[in-house]
Task: structure prediction
Amino acid sequence: IIFATLSPDMYFPGCGVQIQDMLGLPTVGALDVRNQCSGFVYALSVADQFIKTGMYQNILVIGSEFHSGGLDVTTRGRGVSVIFGDGAGAAILTRSDDPERGILSTHLHSEGKHARELTVESPSIAHWVPEILNNPDDLSYYPYMNGTFVFKNAVVRFSEVIMEGLQTNGLSPTDINTLIPHQANLRISQFVQKKFSLRDDQVYNNIQKYGNTTAGTLPLCLWDYEKQLKKGDNIILSAFGGGFTWGAVYLKWAYNS
Result:
């Protein structure tokens, strides 16, 4: 079990072991991925490597978020709170001997020098609970986002990692059947769509339905648009988020829905 989230039920242990218990899966391995909006991409990459190395045959990958309980819903926090939503999705990865189906490649990046541009700083070992309780003006437990800075970086990194995957797989933008971008901002998706000359029906967006569900975004998009995907389609999952972290997964759809 690989569980991606930035909003776990508890500070520790992680949610993976909770799912193991709920599903009654005896002593299977469970780990959590903390890569925020890129969480599902990172989780898929870990699962992909576990399967390719032969360590596991089947892996449950989950992206899940419960943002609403931790947002500043006053006027002060509206720049962040209006964007985020609650949601979850899951996928089961299994081994295949067919090199022309499933995940073809994954591409991961990070740039930690920008970590404080999109962050929740506390509680943490650097800013622990007593400090917060002793200062009623301390709001560091609410999310902070430098929206303009994040946007400028996102449009660049999205484009870079998509092109990286195309080059790795010997593809050109015209070979893309479907792009499923992380749903942080519709303008980011539209910018990337225009850069790669993709039609509206090639780029799937559902931010208008759910908001930004962080690690839950990509599996929710796959669920919403599954019936439009066709066997053999070249599909790109891409994401950018806090950390900064970003990445992409290139896969060939294995079946007709």
The radius of gyration is 18 Å.
